Amino acid sequence: MTNQPITGTAHADGAELYFERRGEGPPLLLITGGGGDAGYYAAMADQLADGHTVLSYDRRGNSRSPLPGPPAPLELSQQSSDALAVLGANGFLSAAVFGNSGGATITLDLAAWHPERLTAAIAHEPPVPLILPDAAAQLAPYEEIERVRQAAGWREAFALFQATIGGLERHPMVVQAMLDPDMFVPPGPHLDMLRRVSRNWEYMINWEVRPFIGYRPAIAEIKRGGVPMAIAAGASTDEAGKRTSQLLAQLLDVPFAEFPGGHTAPLELPSMFADRLRPLLAELS
Questions:
Q1: Helix, strand and coil in the chain, % to nearest 5
Q2: Where residue 1 falls among pLDDT bands split at 50, 70, 90?
């Protein structure tokens, strides 16, 4: 199935947020993590558009949503306000929300501080190591990435991030393709998306990674808000990532849901991922 999206702009705190809208039915907002591009979800959104009005957007500072001023560290409260602005620009007061990676962290922030705006929430592998009993050990790789960033620049830090956090230590050509996709990817929509995202990595490394990793979910507020919620992780995700999601589900007393693939499965396995997401949304809603 291919749905040509309706595109538009949501105005939020000085920024103009590019969004895409597909399908009809109950609204479903998809929130991306690092890279922040609606194209990340395009194939999965096509699959889900037969039963939902699917909204996706480029997060502030990424791709077609430029910053209104100089870059600054990401603020989760602003990211949540941006997500709500996308809903409002499409005429919705509330929606089901799915987020992957940093988008899952934004989903948690929405559930804590804007529960009335969420009909359901699924957070897929939020990177929230501060909840772990061995948080210091889990944060050590990020400290090294920051040391490299300050000493050698963002590109070296990005390569280290993908090698250690992204699991691409044995795949340096993949990392190179992420930075310079024209060298490796044939022309087409996928290359168009990778070109946009390749220009987002500098912003992610310099301004997004540390605020995301330093976020501690407001467990009590999320539970008090009562949004129907599940925490998810991929079947082939590394043990640390899966352990974080499983512990978070326990702390929140919500279901843990296993999905196909790994951390980037919404992009890599869109049909399989949509087939797992659809019934879970129905169960929560």
A1: 50, 20, 30
A2: very low
> Is residue 272 assigned to a domain?
yes
> Nearest-CA neighbor of 41 among 181, 162, 186, 193?
193
* Domain residue limits at 38: 6-134+215-284
3-state secondary structure of 180: coil
pLDDT, tens digit (0-9, with 9 covering 90-100), for 225-265: 999 999 999 998 888 889 999 999 999 999 999 999 999 99
**Within-domain flag for 185:** no
Tokens standing for residue 71:
């870059």
Mark 231-268 as b/e (b = at least 16 C-beta within 10 Å).
bbbbeebeeebbbbbebbbeebebebbebebbbbbbbe
| Model confidence, pTM | 0.96
Count of domains observed in the chain? 1
